[in-house]
Amino acid sequence: MAPPTEHPHIVVHSPALDGSRRVTSDDDTLGIATHADDVAEILRLADLYVTDVEGTDVIEWQGGGPDDWPGLSEHHTA
């Protein structure tokens, strides 16, 4: 029997003043996200393929979930 696959501890940190959120894996900063899609892309570029960033238990969301990006709504126009 194969040992269980270990996933790194991925954290999407609390929003900064501009609404962006830092994404880390263990002690390494992987990037800065401004949307949940950014989180998926940052993880893909780090060879950490997580297809459902909103529904996985691999990611720890701090200071709000994947729909919480305060401060960014006024920067995006419809």
What report would you give on this structure?
- This protein is an alpha+beta fold and 78 residues long.
- The protein is built from 1 helix and 4 strands; from the N terminus they run βββαβ.
- Strands 3-2-1-4 form a 4-stranded mixed β-sheet, with helices on one face.
- The radius of gyration is 13 Å and the shape is globular.
- The protein starts with 9 loop residues before the first strand and ends in a 17-residue tail after the last strand.
- The mean pLDDT is 84.
The overall pLDDT average reads 84
Alpha-carbon distance between the termini?
Answer: 52 Å
How many helices? The count is: 1
Label the overall shape.
globular
Pattern of helices and strands: EEEHE
Strand content: 15-25%
Give the strand order, joined by hyphens, for the main sheet.
Answer: 3-2-1-4
- State the assembly state of the protein chains: single chain
Structural class: alpha+beta
Query: Low-confidence parts, pLDDT < 50 over ≥5 residues?
Result: none
Main pleated-sheet profile: 4 strands, mixed
Percent range for helical residues?
10-25%
Using only C-alpha atoms, the radius of gyration works out to 13 Å
